[in-house]
# Entry
Amino acid sequence: MSEVLRASMPRDVHSAGLDLVDLCRWDLAVARTKGELLQRVFTLAERRAAESRSAPGTPHERLLGKAFGVKEGVVKAVGGLPMDTAFKDIEVDAVPGRPTWPVRLHGELERWADHHGVEMVGGAHDLGDDMAAAWAVARTPAAPEGGTP
# Structure
């Protein structure tokens, strides 16, 4: 990484990934697979949370589409999906209205985060026209109050 780029990044950021989500295409993929896509990509806890947290009048699949974008951002931040790893190994705690969503990693991804001493967070922002920007950042965990990282 160039020194100019390194100097411009916050010190607690190890790596990051960004994904643009076309929510209309997402809706079509969910409909075409009759929900199988949601079962393959999301844990039961993620699906249930999306059902309970989605805004009235907004299908919960839309929130899951944004969470999928965060998962794609995680894959980019770690440099690719390791062998024998699935999207369910990335759990996104998608909470509409919160700027940052916790991300829990499992298996090889969790080992990657432990090796690099980072935690993963993400989020999504509506861009209009059924598009959303989703992101994930591997960062050094915040120090406890009065402690050092």
The chain has a mean pLDDT of 90. The helical segments are 3-8, 23-32, 36-41, 44-53, 60-78, 107-116. The beta strands are 13-22, 90-92, 101-105, 119-128, 131-139. DSSP finds six helices and five strands in the chain.
